[in-house]
From TrEMBL:
Record gene name: ftsL
Record InterPro entries: Cell_div_FtsL
Function: Essential cell division protein. May link together the upstream cell division proteins, which are predominantly cytoplasmic, with the downstream cell division proteins, which are predominantly periplasmic.
Protein name, as recorded: Cell division protein FtsL
Main location: membrane
UniProt-listed GO biological process terms: cell division
Organism, as annotated: Pseudoxanthomonas putridarboris
Family affiliation: Belongs to the FtsL family.
Domain of life: Bacteria
């Protein structure tokens, strides 16, 4: 009887140790994944900031006006060229 109890306790101890080892390994794997995802998030935030700055620069009205005048040869119509159509 004593040997059986001792064997059960030893098996329970081994099973508990294996559970602790598995839990620690799983924790390390998940921690590595969280760290990798946080790094990717930070890189995406930096890229988003760059894109917002680029969008603000490209959408600036003075720049659009300059491109329209230089590249497309556009200009504001003269007062005499404006026609108002009423219903």
């Amino acid at each position: 009887m004593t040997r059986l109890l001792l064997a059960v306790l030893i098996l329970a101890n081994i099973a508990s140790a294996i559970g602790v080892i598995y839990a620690r390994h799983r924790h390390r794997v998940l921690f590595d994944e969280v760290t990798r995802l946080e790094r990717a998030r930070d890189e995406l935030n930096v890229e988003f900031g760059r894109l917002q700055l680029e969008q603000a620069t490209v959408a600036e009205s003075n720049r659009i006006d300059q491109i329209a005048r230089v590249r497309l040869g556009m200009k504001f119509p003269e007062t005499a060229d404006i026609v108002v159509i009423r219903p």
